[in-house]
Amino acid sequence: MLNDIEKVLYSEEDIRQKVKELGEQLTKDFAGRNPLVICILKGAFIFMSDLVKEIKIPLEIDFMAVSSYGQSTKSSGVVKIIKDLDVSVEGRNVLIVEDIIDSGLTLSYLIDVLEHRNAASVTVATLFDKPARRAVELQPHYKGYTLPDEFVVGYGLDYAEKYRNLPFIGVLKPEVYS
Ligand SMILES: O=P(O)(O)OC[C@H]1O[C@H](OP(=O)(O)OP(=O)(O)O)[C@H](O)[C@@H]1O
Ligand code: HPA
Ligand SMILES: [Mg+2]
């Protein structure tokens, strides 16, 4: 598995520190608002579990599974909801937790869905942002790192469902997917 990685962009320790900083900021900004923190599966599962431990106020969590990449390194452009939320977002301060914003298609679709369901507010926290590939206008409220235009894996992110368990974020060797 490690042989397929061209370079490590951020180590496990780098990410730990960044997640702690994001958590401190969110703790201040969401104090008294009982946020509903929504993990976008599968990619965000590791970031979500590390992040909520660093948000030191009462909150609730829920999960939504969506997919648009499948076995490819390019978005299909069609966002499919595979698992919906268990609770209503009506009147709630929602914090969406994403691993990465790339084309932005997944998030712009989700924000639309949650606003139509009458959330009181919709805020986005992403660990990684790849603005070079944006197909729609979209800016996260909170972000960890800006990434170059390369396909990355690890810390929850996959290629064809593999590499999610790497503890760091790295660039996949192009020969693995081409
Ligand atoms: O900004 P975009 O171009 O829409 O890309 C970002 C989305 O793509 C990935 O999910 P994917 O569809 O691969 O599902 P997964 O989380 O199960 O890997 C990632 O986890 C984000 O949700
Ligand atoms: O660079 C990426 N890696 C893994 N999954 C992704 N989904 C969007 N962009 C990426
Ligand atoms: Mg994926």
Automatic annotation (TrEMBL):
**Pfam families from the UniProt entry:** Pribosyltran
Q: Which InterPro entries match?
A: HGPRT, Hxn_phspho_trans, PRTase-like, PRTase_dom
Pathway field: Purine metabolism; IMP biosynthesis via salvage pathway; IMP from hypoxanthine: step 1/1; Purine metabolism; GMP biosynthesis via salvage pathway; GMP from guanine: step 1/1
List cellular component terms (GO). cytosol
Per UniProt, the enzyme's principal EC class comes to transferase
For this protein, what is the EC number? 2.4.2.8
Q: Main localization of the protein?
A: cytoplasm
Question: What's in the keyword line of the UniProt record?
Answer: Cytoplasm, Glycosyltransferase, Magnesium, Metal-binding, Nucleotide-binding, Purine salvage, Transferase
Instruction: Tell me what reaction this enzyme catalyses.
Output: GMP + diphosphate = guanine + 5-phospho-alpha-D-ribose 1-diphosphate; IMP + diphosphate = hypoxanthine + 5-phospho-alpha-D-ribose 1-diphosphate
Protein location:
Cytoplasm
Molecular function in Gene Ontology: guanine phosphoribosyltransferase activity; hypoxanthine phosphoribosyltransferase activity; magnesium ion binding; nucleotide binding
Q: Which GO terms describe its biological process?
A: GMP salvage; guanine salvage; hypoxanthine metabolic process; IMP salvage; purine ribonucleoside salvage
Cofactor(s), names only, from the UniProt record: Mg(2+)
* Domain Phosphoribosyltransferase per the UniProt entry, residue ranges: 12-159
Q: Which family does it belong to?
A: Belongs to the purine/pyrimidine phosphoribosyltransferase family.
Question: What does this protein's UniProt record list under function?
Answer: Purine salvage pathway enzyme that catalyzes the transfer of the ribosyl-5-phosphate group from 5-phospho-alpha-D-ribose 1-diphosphate (PRPP) to the N9 position of the 6-oxopurines hypoxanthine and guanine to form the corresponding ribonucleotides IMP (inosine 5'-monophosphate) and GMP (guanosine 5'-monophosphate), with the release of PPi.
**Official protein name in the record:** Hypoxanthine phosphoribosyltransferase
Organismal lineage: Bacteria, Bacillati, Bacillota, Bacilli, Bacillales
